[in-house]
Structures are given as C-alpha cells and as structure tokens.
C-alpha cells in the first residue's frame, strides 16, 4: 500500500473511533438516566465510569502494546471489543437499570446511593471503556514510526477529539431523536468496526516490526511530573463538570445542555492538540509546559470572572433564537 494511504486510513479510523466513543457516552447516559430518573446524575456517573475505564485500559495495556510486533492487530482487536460490547449494552443496561431502584432502596444513605449510582455504570461499561483507553497507545505505536520526527500524539489526539465532537453532536441531535437508542448503539458499533477494518486494510501487508526499547530501560518520570499530569486531568474534567453544574442553574440542565458544553470543550481541545502537533517541536518542552500551565491558570480564573455575564447573555440568545430545540441548544452553546 502507498505510504500516504497507510497513514491516512489510520487517522480516519481514529476519527471514527472518537465519534463512536463519545457517541456511546451520550447514548449510555440516556439509557442510565431512564433508570436513575435524572439526567445530570447519569451524566456524572457515566463520565466517571468512562474515564475510569479509559485510565485502567491505558495503564494496564500500554506496556504489552509497546512491546508488540503486530500493534495493528492489537488496535483491530480493541475496536472489535468496543463494537461488540456496545451491542451487548443494548440488552445489558436496561436489564440492570430495571433492578437499580431495588438495589438502591427507598431511603438509602447518600453514600450507598452514590456508590451504586457510580459503580453500576463503571462495571457495566468497563470492557468497552478499557478498550477505548488502550486505542491511543496502540495507534501511537502504529503511526509514530511512520511520522517524520517520530511525533504523532498531538495529531492523533486532535483527530480523535474531532471525531468525538461529531459523535456528541450526531448522537444527541441526530441519532437519538430520529432512530432511538437501540439503533443508535448499532450505528456506533458499526463505526467502531469500520475503524478496525480501515486499520486492517492499511496494515494487511505490513511486516512485523521490532518493538522499541523496553520502557523499563528508560528512567522513570519524576514524581512531580506525574503529579502535574494527574492535576491537568483533574482540572480538565473537573472544570468541565463544575462548569456544567454552575450553568445548570441557568440553562435547561438536560442531555442537550451537556452536549453543548462538551462540544465547546472538544472543539478547543482538538485545536490545542493540533497546534501542538504543528508547532510543539519548535519549543523546549519544559518551558512550553510551564507557559501553558500558567496561561491555563489565568484563563480558568478569567472564566470564573465571566460567570455574572452568563445569565444576560443566555437570555438575550434565547430571545433572539426562539424556543425550538435547535434554538435552545444554540443559545446554550
């Protein structure tokens, strides 16, 4: 296969993977909301389960993937697991949520209530979300050797995040209203399976590659650096969820509100990843990271200062756009 096509097809596959992943998140949120009786509780529970599974999959499978001679087969297997488990949740989630009120009880303690509300999605979605978490190291292992400077992570993150944006918007405003939850999960499973097929086509004639040096030979990352990475993840999703909770006092506080907030988050994240892929090599990494974190802190503070402006802006947008579902979504965005 032509080298250019060998790179384009995996990027397209990772775009579809992102669309399927966040599309699943939207549909799973709606399915769990039926059992929990509250959109926001389901949003928080599924988001927590989603990222817990992704972290577990990335952490546990990174080293086997890094040492694999056939990383393409790893990626194909992961996407097929995601597709298959997505189909299985059509039956699994309604069956579990039907028993959730009985397990929670009529007067549960807050600890019991929230523990069950978060544990149920975590265990239900774990096979698919863990596989999702491992797709990034698998795709990075595939494409980094094919890039000019050995750097592919920024481009992969940007493409996957753009796919996630499409998945959020398509799942919320197209699939769910038109075909329903069961058919939406089928469509998303097809997208995941298609991602597997594209990688299989791109690397069907690819010879086994020698793995890079074992990660155990590299010096461990300093503890402060690991803490920094942990903190950026905490801030990233915490800022999104806290922002949604604050905006819920003003906007409609529905799955459409969540989709609007998430769409903005994904657009900006993809733009940042794309900029890093194109320009990041020009800067010394530690100095760039320090500047980015300083800027991030300042912009988070600025975001908090703009909160008094939210209500009049939203009211003006609602007055201008109207009260239809697309108009309300546009005003919330």
Commentary on this structure:
This protein is mostly helical. The chain has helices at residues 3-36, 39-66, 71-104, 110-143, 153-202, 223-247, 255-279, 285-305, 310-321, 325-332. Helix 5 packs across helix 7. The radius of gyration is 21 Å and the shape is globular.
Instruction: Report the sheet-strand fraction.
Output: under 5%
Helix fraction bin = over 70%
Unreliable stretches, pLDDT < 50, 5 or more residues? none
Oligomeric form: single chain
Q: Keyphrases for this structure?
A:
333 residues
Secondary-structure map:
Blueprint: H1 3-36, H2 39-66, H3 71-104, H4 110-143, H5 153-202, H6 223-247, H7 255-279, H8 285-305, H9 310-321, H10 325-332
Would you summarize the structure shown here?
With about 325 residues, this protein is an all-alpha fold. It is about 80% helix and about 0% strand.
């Amino acid at each position: 296969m032509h080298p250019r096509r060998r790179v384009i097809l995996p990027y397209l596959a990772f775009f579809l993977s992102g669309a399927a992943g966040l599309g699943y998140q939207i549909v799973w949120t709606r399915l769990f909301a039926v059992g929990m009786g509250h959109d926001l509780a389901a949003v928080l529970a599924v988001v927590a389960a989603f990222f817990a599974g992704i972290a577990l999959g990335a952490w546990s499978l990174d080293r086997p993937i890094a040492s694999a001679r056939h990383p393409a087969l790893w990626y194909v297997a992961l996407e097929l697991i995601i597709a298959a488990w997505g189909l299985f949740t059509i039956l699994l989630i309604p069956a579990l949520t039907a028993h959730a009120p009985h397990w929670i009880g009529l007067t549960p303690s807050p600890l019991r209530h929230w523990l069950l509300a978060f544990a149920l999605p975590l265990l239900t979605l774990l096979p698919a979300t863990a596989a999702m978490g491992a797709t990034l190291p698998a795709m990075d292992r595939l494409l980094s050797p094919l890039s000019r400077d050995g750097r592919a992570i920024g481009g992969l993150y940007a493409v996957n995040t753009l796919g996630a944006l499409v998945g959020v918007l398509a799942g919320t405003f197209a699939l769910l209203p038109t075909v329903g939850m069961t058919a939406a999960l089928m469509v998303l499973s097809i997208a995941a399976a298609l991602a597997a097929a594209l990688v299989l086509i791109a690397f069907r004639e690819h010879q086994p590659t020698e793995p890079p040096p074992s990660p155990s030979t590299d010096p461990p990352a300093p503890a402060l650096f690991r803490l920094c990475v942990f903190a950026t993840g905490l801030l990233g999703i915490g800022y999104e969820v806290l922002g949604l909770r604050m905006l819920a006092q003003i906007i409609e506080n529905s799955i459409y509100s969540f989709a609007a907030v998430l769409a903005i988050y994904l657009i900006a994240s993809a733009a940042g990843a794309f900029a890093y892929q194109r320009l990041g090599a020009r800067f010394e990494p530690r100095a760039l990271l320090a500047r980015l974190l300083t800027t991030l802190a300042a912009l988070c503070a600025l975001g908090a200062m703009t909160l008094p402006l939210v209500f009049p802006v939203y009211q003006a947008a609602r007055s201008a756009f109207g009260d239809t579902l697309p108009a309300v979504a546009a005003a919330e965005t």
